[in-house]
Amino acid sequence: MSIVVIGNGMAGSRLVTEIRERDREVPLTVFGAEPEQPYNRILLSNVLAGAAGPEQIGLVDRAWYGRNGVDARHGVEVTAIDRAARVVHASDGTATPYGTLVIATGSRSIVPPIPGTEDGLPEGALAFRTLDDCRAIIGAAEGARRAVVIGGGLLGIEAARGLAGRGLDVTVAHLAGHLMERQLDPGAGRCWRGPSAASGSAPAWRPMSPPCAPATTPARGG
Ligand SMILES: Cc1cc2nc3c(=O)[nH]c(=O)nc-3n(C[C@H](O)[C@H](O)[C@H](O)COP(=O)(O)OP(=O)(O)OC[C@H]3O[C@@H](n4cnc5c(N)ncnc54)[C@H](O)[C@@H]3O)c2cc1C
């Protein structure tokens, strides 16, 4: 019985290596839409900050797949699943039969419904999710003086830190009353403001307060 895994990110790549460790024989195929070898997405912030290179965050070496008899399709997206025929169709034009199908396709960045984003992100606006995004942000930061990060959760703060470290003046626009509201209570969240704003060390970044809500949010009160 063959196994096909869709998604060669953190979960998919680990699953594939674990299956192969337990079973040397089962036919195993993994599709990854991203062209790179699987990498540790959590460490993208270090790449953005310049503390690590892309080559330092790889998870499974490309050569491993060949050595272990795994059919790895890097940069190939699965476009359709034919459940009746038990076949996946992919962007490289192939049709691959499966006995067991695993979907490990992760998630995508949420872009808030801000006017101007209906047809995708405008020029100069970038999401932060993949190594490609990271390269694009680093490229855009070169020669730029200011950056605005929308979202003051963990990723937003990490992105702000990375950009500030590259010498940009960074503003964080955040929907809630304090940063990282899912992890921190208001008192702890306010501490983020103090040291960064008070230290006076350049470059600085500032959370926007009062909160910046998407323009489509209906006004409260009457
Ligand atoms: C900058 C950053 C920092 C983070 N920091 C933390 C942290 O500190 N702690 C924490 O717990 N989590 C963190 N996360 C979240 C963590 O990275 C995710 O929870 C984790 O990557 C999820 O793993 P996954 O394998 O499910 O998805 P992903 O790693 O997103 O992998 C999914 C893969 O599937 C591929 N794919 C999607 N559709 C298809 C298709 N149709 N065909 C083929 N391939 C497809 C995608 O291209 C992608 O490569 C962070 C995320 C980011 C972006």
What are the main properties of this structure?
binds flavin-adenine dinucleotide, 10 strands, 7 helices, 222 residues, 27% helix, three-stranded antiparallel β-sheet, alpha/beta, FAD/NAD(P)-binding domain, disordered C terminus, four-stranded parallel β-sheet
CATH 4th-level superfamily of the largest domain: FAD/NAD(P)-binding domain
Instruction: Report the principal-axis shape.
Output: elongated
CATH class of the largest domain: Alpha Beta
Q: Label the structural class.
A: alpha/beta
Descriptive report:
- The protein has 2 domains: 3-103, FAD/NAD(P)-binding domain; 131-208, 3-Layer(bba) Sandwich (FAD/NAD(P)-binding domain), CATH 3.50.50.60.
- It has 7 helices and 10 strands.
- By secondary structure, it is α/β, with parallel strands linked by helices.
- The chain has helices at 10-22, 44-49, 62-67, 131-141, 154-165, 186-191, 193-198, and strands spanning 3-6, 28-32, 70-74, 78-82, 87-90, 95-97, 100-103, 146-150, 169-173, 205-208.
- A 4-stranded parallel β-sheet has the order 3-2-1-7. It has a 3-stranded antiparallel β-sheet with strand order 4-5-6, with no helix packed on it.
- 27% of the residues lie in helices and 20% in strands.
- The radius of gyration is 21 Å and the shape is elongated.
- The structure holds flavin-adenine dinucleotide.
- Flavin-adenine dinucleotide (FAD) binds at residues 6-12, 31-34, 41-42, 44-45, 77-78, 104-106, 128-129, 155.
